[in-house]
């Protein structure tokens, strides 16, 4: 990987800002006495597999932090990256074959699919939790198997409602409502003004899963209960399906085939007044050279995904966490690397360079200036706090991962919207599909 | 087409059809005369051809225009038509060639595809000839087993293959692909060449045997020269399959500089949910050109070998 002088300067500026930020949250030198450390093995070299950058700043800052780690410890780290959807199969192969990268930044419930292949990270996770205000509850769910931490949460690429302020105000709303009822009313009013909304109903790993799980759980529906018993076919699920069917009437045509990138394109093209997405739409408009896009960026606002009748946030966001594999010859070096990267001096500048793409897993990082320097970033700050876990309210593991990979929830909603099945039929079918996985 | 009429008229089958054709198209209605009238030709020949052309070429057209479009045009359907380019730009090509490792990926893909193709052809020629001509006990079963091996999907094979790739220390090297691609190339090439070898008369080999030629001489000096169309056809197929392969390249390669085009393009030009469509299309277009050129040079051999093999 090559660096230009500009990259180094930009990263330097980011790191300086991060250092200021870390003092803001009371870390840095104040924690000098409170520093855990793992002694890397002699001659240790590490290989990290991570998802491809979401924004250039993310990768540049990550590499700069890694370089700092190498200078400090002498441990070289080779960083490989793959498209974010392709990391999961590679991680599964590494786990099954017993060889591959020492550390992998995976997604969702990856660690729970091969827990016996992973190095326990309990000491490290407890140290970080204690030092940085604690992990959000959902992070403990994702990171822990029983009492043992098997993954180290890095955060989530959060999703919010992204909308055109002027059109929403034109439709009679000050901001986009954050409850499902208001959300529907606003969508109808926008449609009446000739500005439909649109969310992915195709097999979109990120967007489709995020908003549809959020709605399902918001109405009290869920795939399984606490004991992993399939309870998908419930009155709450049917209510959620009826709601989305009604909401779908306000959508722009074509959303049934939308994947993760389609809503970005439609929003930037002015085809939709609102969608549910990461911060990427705003970022693309803000950093574009096109004056029209810059103008559009001024009109883009965000609010958190809507809460349903259950009256509390029920979000699902793209959650990522680090795993250290037992086949690694250098587990201590790997843990030391993770500790170093998760410390405020490194984490905060990296989070800042990623301009809010990744929401922190540790409460102390809520104070990162990235969330307040542009008020439009702020809703993304709470994405992990508002999250539930995949396969809620059951256990994480093979079944929850397979059910998501099979798009059971997404397809259930899409079938109703397409008119292929009634809500009752779609819920029945989804329950049958879920049972196939949860029976194992 | 009109030349065919007198010949066909002398064939018994065609002569028997004569009255029926005449009944439909008048007293000259023989052979393909029904294509003589322009409206009929339009409906039966030109229109289906146009539909085929549209279906086959439209993706290429879309790739070409997207390659030369700016993001402003790409996202603005109100001011710009999506079907052509108003302000062409080379920005996407520049990004592809100078801001990514695309030239290296092209080179990697070329090396892997060419070597894997030749390796597979060599093995397939040996296997195909042995099964078809040496007629050892169980040769039919071996032939069938090789064909069945082709039906095992790579998505099942890649985990056991990963174990082997890691064990031999081939991970993240071109050899990982060069040695795993033949797992699906050899069965297909063998199956194709078996069919082609079967269409070559035995008598030629028997004459050579009488003249004292060895089996190896027969293979090299008689069978292979006669099987050139079959070899080209199998080669093109193997090359295309290697060129487009995704799952092994994704699993066995990690470093950016060792990637092939299908994996490299997806990794480098998709950032989260932001797809750099212009550069992605440029990558797809440039990546499909070598295969298109190869096909255009050898299309006649390709067709003749396919029909030859299938006949048998």
UniProtKB/TrEMBL annotation, chain A:
One of its GO terms (cellular component) is periplasmic space. SUPFAM superfamilies: Periplasmic binding protein-like II (SSF53850). It is found in: Periplasm. It comes from the Bacteria. Its main location: periplasm. Keywords: Signal, Transport. It holds the Pfam family SBP_bac_8. Belongs to the bacterial solute-binding protein 1 family. This is Carbohydrate ABC transporter substrate-binding protein, CUT1 family.
Automatic annotation (TrEMBL), chain B:
InterPro entries: BP-dep_ABC_trans_perm, MetI-like, MetI-like_sf. GO terms for biological process: transmembrane transport. Keywords: Cell membrane, Membrane, Transmembrane, Transmembrane helix, Transport. PROSITE patterns: ABC_TM1. Pfam families: BPD_transp_1. Residues 106-298 form the ABC transmembrane type-1 domain. Residues 1-26 are annotated as: Disordered. It comes from the Bacteria. Belongs to the binding-protein-dependent transport system permease family. This is Carbohydrate ABC transporter membrane protein 2, CUT1 family. It comes from Tistlia consotensis USBA 355.
